[in-house]
Amino acid sequence: MISVLINAIKVLHISMEKSKIYKLIGIFLVALFVCSTAFYIFESKANANLSYGDSLWWGFVTTTTVGYGDYFPITVLGRLFGIALMLIGISTFGFVTAAIASIFIDNKMKEGMGLMDIKFENHIVLIGWNKKSETMLKELVEDSQERKIVIVSDVERLNLPYKNTYFVHGDPTIDETLIRANIAYADIVMVVADENLMINDGMADAKSVLVCLAVDKFNTNIHLIAEVLNEENIPHFERANVNDIIVSNQMSSRVMVRSAVYKNVSSVLKELLTNSYGNELYECKVKEDDIGISFKELSMKYINDYNTIVVGIANEKVSLNPDKDRKIKKDDVIIYISNEKL
After folding, report:
1. CA–CA separation, 200 vs 119, rounded Å?
2. Which bin fits 114, alpha (ψ -120 to 50), beta or left (φ > 0)?
3. What distance in Å separates the CA atoms of residue 136 and residue 334, rounded to the nearest whole number?
4. Are residues 291 and 330 in contact, defined by beta-carbon separation less than 8 angstroms?
5. Pick from 101, 43, 93, 41: which is nearest to 71 by CA?
6. pLDDT tops 80 at residue 16
7. Could you give the CA distance from residue 147 to residue 267 in angstroms, rounded to a whole number?
């Protein structure tokens, strides 16, 4: 939170410097001291109780057009300097307010056009924008509204309706675009196949491989997920160090077959694969007091304590419905079905 505030102050400082607002504020302060001093010189003769501090107070409330009326000029010269200070105050505050407002509007426009640089870390980067990406973004936001998500795409403008979502415009195969998305400090990257190239599976997958190679160049430890259209191209993605390879056509075909053979399976899959309603699939690290017990004991414990069904254990590989006597280890990850995240 503090780092975000510091970055916002830095951006505002640079913008104000370029807009020459600081020079205007300097001129305003000089005019304030000159007019307040003149006010003190002329008005102190008519008001013996007037101090220089009172004159500065009068000068400030006059320039801001507040005008409390506790001090006011009664001499001709004092009133002339008062008029001058009012005109200076109205002009200065009007210009400064408009300049600062234009800075925020400009930053908002840059954000919508994807021209802002990402400074935060441990975020999720979603590369590629289409209907599938919209669904993925919605699911990610519904899973956690505090998670920061960055969309990287070459679309001209993208207005994101969710909190903590950001847009970076550019070609994701180019280093400069990935640097602006702060890919080196991201936590997860998801690469979606380019719809414009889907008429040719080989071209779409080739571009995705290039993106994955570029990402791996900046961050070899990142968790990289990629959509693959043609199963034959999987070896290329493996060479790009992709952690999770999702063959989209293959998955949709298999879901349709399972739904045809077992008619209720499709409803189960829909519920488990969305955060919109019902129970979902989650994972969590094993708890200290779970280490050493059997999978059967773990399953009974989670049903009784959390109303949760444990469906598998992940370690070096995922094991669904493992042997009931399989002992839970320190590095295990529990995969479970629940109404909410534990």
Report:
1. 36
2. left
3. 23
4. yes
5. 43
6. no
7. 28
